[in-house]
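Exam revision sheet. Question 4 asks you to relate a sequence to its structure. Input first:
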Amino acid sequence: MAKNLTGTRIAFLVANEGIEQVEQTEPRQAAAAAGAAVDLVAPKPGEAQAYNHLDKADTFPVGRTTNEVHESEYDAVVLPGGVANGDQLRTDEPAVRSPVG
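Answer key, structure tokens:
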């Protein structure tokens, strides 16, 4: 049974391309099912392209950009896996400046 996360806000911080799909979708769905408000945060507006290993998978709408958010808005930050995800985020100044924007 999942812990009740009602009233909790979680940022899922991703690059616009290179997220390992299952490492973003599974935790995000679990957090939302437990009652958390979740935001997909990326450097650029639009969509985030996920991958299943090296193959393109689904795209996901970006809710907010790293320039629009501040860590004080969130109770937790999730950095999904995928080599490209972390590698690309390290070049985004707002993402590096603080855990979220």
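Marking note for examiners. DSSP finds three helices and seven strands in the chain.
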